[in-house]
Amino acid sequence: MIELSRGRYRARLAQGADDLAAAQKLRGLAFHGTQIPDADAFDARCDHMLIEDTRSGALVCCFRFLPLPSGRAIGNSYAAQFYELSSLEGFEGRMVEMGRFCLHPDWTDPDILRVAWGAMTAYVDETSVEMLFGCTSFAGTDARAYYDAFAVLKARHLGPRRWLPRVKAPDVFRFAQRLRRKPDVRAAMARMPPLLRTYLMMGGWVSDHAVVDAQMNTLHVFTGVEIAAIPPARKKLLRAVAG
Length: 243
Description:
The chain is α+β, with helices and mostly antiparallel strands.
């Protein structure tokens, strides 16, 4: 069982209905600004990671893992609702989908993210995962606000052709086709979601289009990280936190 303490924060896997309910309540607050819990049918199949403040007991961050034995099960993922993922069915190693990542809106301490990534690393190592993937979200559904960020993704971070997801959702922004601009890299990184920036530093790659998700009021890109391709220095840093 994974349990990790760093400074004033503790990461642990949810145990029972009360822990799941607390995560769903935080998700409702973070994603929708409401006290109504955010829940879906995938919750019952996932492992849920909780990051708590040890001084107050407050839940400050949560996310979930959906483990898959190989790419042959990719159709059972949350992302498969939005992306045509048959190209990943040939991935032979264990996979895990990381989703519903959120921070409490009143907590901005960067140490929370460090502990979260340490917990993610511990989970990946403990379960022998070879690919981490998920949907990484930009706030809002107006792609124009993120043209520089999408241009950087096109120029530097598109996934390998053999794994690249195809279009499935009815409303998408095909940034790899539509954008012809030279990006302002500083502006791009300022608008890039922190979770996605971390994936990219780990050698992560993205789909060539973004899905417009009106229900969640986001634009999101499929993001994959092949564990074997993470730069050694980055692996060492992550495992130092996880250890």
